[in-house]
Amino acid sequence: MKKVFPMILIVFVLSALVLAACGGGGGQSTSEKPAVPAEYAGKTNPLGSDAAAAGKTIYEERCASCHGPSGAGDGPAAAGLDPKPAHLNEVVGTAGDDYLFWRIAEGGSMAPFNSSMPAQKGILTDEQIWQVVTYIKTFK
């Protein structure tokens, strides 16, 4: 019994150290989205579902080469990108209109995204960005 107790104590202490090392260290998880900047916060899509057809055309021209035809992040240009394009099917289910508009308008060059997604503000009008938002929300 005297030899078993120290062995149990060592196993317990090592297990505790391993769990502490692997624990949630408070860093931002990759599934967490950063806060939407004030200039975009609270924006809601003013367009109806009929805008999805126009959004599809824009998406196919400007987005599908990276995000893929169904938003899976598997477009032909995606293979050469690091980080990989977002899987839109996962994003649109949890993101609000303001987040989607912001990400399309500003692109991905800022932290924490650091991606090569180009900003569409100045290329697309607000209405066209909302059309794309309407279309990608059909991916859910």
What's the short version?
Pfam families: Cytochrom_C. This protein has 140 residues and is mainly alpha-helical.
What's the alpha carbon Rg, rounded to whole Å? 22 Å
Tally the helices: 6
Strand content: under 5%
Kindly name the structural category.
mainly alpha
Give an overview of the whole structure.
The structure is a single chain. This protein is an all-alpha fold and 140 residues long. It has a domain at 44-139: Cytochrome Bc1 Complex, Chain D, domain 2, CATH 1.10.760.10. It contains six helices and no strands. It has helices at residues 4-22, 52-62, 64-67, 88-92, 97-106, 126-136. Helix 2 packs across helix 6 (126-136) and helix 5 crosses helix 6 (126-136). The protein is globular. Mean pLDDT is 82; it is low at 9-30.
Please give a handful of descriptors for the protein shown.
140 residues, mainly alpha, Cytochrome Bc1 Complex, Chain D, domain 2, 43% helix, 0% strand, globular, Cytochrome c domain-containing protein, iron, Cytochrome_c-type_DH
Task: List strands and helices in order, with pairings.
Elements: H1 4-22, H2 52-62, H3 64-67, H4 88-92, H5 97-106, H6 126-136
Region (Disordered): 27-47
Signal peptide: 1-20
Pfam families: Cytochrom_C
